[in-house]
Input
Amino acid sequence: MWQSLSQQLSEVLMFDFQIQERTQLDGGDISKCYMISDGEQRYFVKVNDRDFFPRYELEVEGLKLLRESNSVFVPEVIHIGYCKDRAFLILNYIATKPLENAKASYKFGLQLAKLHKYGEQGEFGYDHDNYVGATLQPNNWNKSWARFFSEQRIGWQLQLLKEKGISFGAPQTIIDFIYRSLKSHNPKPALLHGDLWHGNVSNSAFGPICYDPACYWGDPECDIAMTELFGGFMPDFYQGYESVRPLELEYQSRKHIYNLYHILNHCNLFGGHYLDEAETMIENIMQ
Output
């Protein structure tokens, strides 16, 4: 595989790239991740089975869309390809560290607010389905945010759980409650990162950087809610964001509904204590 990758990369770069160093990196939950170098240039490589190639195509599209927004900083896509039994995605290599710097956190808040003000879209969804983590994420366009989120986010996850024999009550009852809870909320569709937990944001010599998107057009509060779900973001981040795009008071109640989506997804992916957490969240939301 590495010989084929080197050949393809050489064609893209238009000079002979021979791998002199290859280091496997931490953090590859779905794909194996590597840093490769010819002694001068370094690149970040994701590797998976060949049938994973369409998933890399979706990731490339998300990264390019975020880059086109001229807001958040994302890795540059160098090449996407495959060989006999492997698919790979090559990005520029950027040394990173956790986003634990107040100035950088504030800057990322500003950048995210700029992303959420980018573009004009009249409906919620995306041109095609993509993935949040390892789970398919349906994105059929819908003019109603309440209908989109209740059915294509909560309803979809509940259906996947039902197929595994897991239930938190009548799915339609939960879907209808979520719909009624959001029916009077009419946000302007915004381009979202879609999977904005602290593991997908870092600091670098170029400032804050984000990656591994699950983009769609939705309520900006969904991105903010997820930053709170697993923690890891400094108060400066929220100060930066709200200096450009203040959150509504009702966000404090809606964020639990939005984060239920990700907890249900974790139930589907990992089970365990997330099942109890989801049950508690549903009970609290529906009280």
